[in-house]
Amino acid sequence: MLRIFHGGGVRAYQRRDEEISRLGHEVHLLVPKAFRELPTLTIAQVRNDSIRVTPIGLYGLRRNPFFFYNPFRVAYICRTFKPQVIDVHEEPYSLAAASILLARFISCVKCEIVFRSSQNEFKSYPFPFSFIQWMMFKTSTEAYVPSEQARRVLQQKKFTGRVSVVGNGVLAPTTPPIASSRSTRLEVVCVGRLIERKGVQDLVEAVVGSQLAINLTIVGSGPMENQLRSIVEGRQHAGGDVDFKGQLALTKRQRLCAGPT
Questions:
Q1: What's the burial of 171, exposed, middle or buried (CB within 10 Å: 0-12/13-18/19+)?
Q2: Cis upstream peptide for 65 (omega within 30°)
Q3: Residue among 137, 189, 182, 200 at smallest CA distance from 163
Q4: What is the C-alpha radius of gyration for the chain, rounded to an integer number of angstroms?
Q5: 131-157: per-residue pLDDT in tens?
Q6: Residues with Cβ < 8 Å from 169, sequence gap 6 or more?
Q7: pLDDT by residue for the chain (261 residues), tens digit each?
């Protein structure tokens, strides 16, 4: 499998590739030599152990969908690696996706193409991005997305291939330092519009179903507010408390802020 991912230089993100390798597949990951995927600039490092990581050049603006890879460099790697699957970990309408499709054409390698999309709201794109998306849909056999909302968007856009939901990974400590006594409760604030695609319902259900001492303050409003209130009211003896506020100035009391996007 040949994977191309603009954020793949982050070592923690390579866990997915390591898991694929443990399943018995050979993985070659192409990543930009440098990319600001995190708040700080990530300089990619070469790897050749359980997976192979090759840093390559990235061109254009460093904002999706305006960056792209050198198709001749990718084509050369395709010819030498001879993948059975190319995993395009880029949005299907992006210049990056276009450069990878061009690279496969130049290389004359016959293989399957899959892609990832995280668009959880339907949007129409102008030319040439609409054409790139059409070509990716036509060429790819499968896609994977991080949420059910993103799956529905692909189906709404008439992608006919198989779509799998593969959630984003979370690196959590085995023993989180969260207080469990009611005198030292964890104060959490969630700021955002209360709509389905934000995933606030998952947060509310996790809090009211938790055995930990948590105070969740929700700042915002939206069409899901009554539904969320019903979830809370239906679990009066839950471990966590949920308070709905239309507007609220944050204080030093809050230790954790959840900002769904």
A1: exposed
A2: yes
A3: 137
A4: 22
A5: 999 999 999 999 999 989 899 999 999
A6: 15, 16
A7: 999 999 999 999 999 999 999 999 999 999 999 998 777 899 999 999 999 999 999 999 988 899 999 999 999 999 999 999 999 999 999 999 999 999 999 999 999 999 999 998 899 999 999 999 999 999 999 999 998 989 999 999 999 999 999 987 766 666 655 555 555 678 888 888 888 878 888 889 888 888 778 888 898 888 999 999 998 887 766 567 888 887 665 555 556 666 666
Domains of the chain in start order, with CATH, are 2-165 (3.40.50.2000), 182-258 (3.40.50.2000)
Spatial CB neighbours of 137, under 8 Å, sequence gap ≥ 6? 92, 157, 158, 159, 160, 161
Q: Of all helices (H) and strands (E), which one includes residue 242? A: strand 241-245
Tokens standing for residue 174: 């085995």
pLDDT tens digits along 47-79: 999 999 999 999 999 888 999 999 999 999 999
User: Any idea which residue has 């849909």 for tokens?
Assistant: 137
Question: What contacts 102, CB < 8 A, 6 or more positions away?
Answer: 71, 75
The answer to whether 168 touches 261, Cβ cutoff 8 Å, is no
How long, in residues, is the chain?
Answer: 261
Looking at this protein, which amino acid is placed at residue 26? E
Give CA–CA dist 15/255, Å, rounded.
28
The token pair at 192 is 């955002």
Pick the closest to residue 52 from 6, 18, 101, 10 (CA basis). Answer: 18
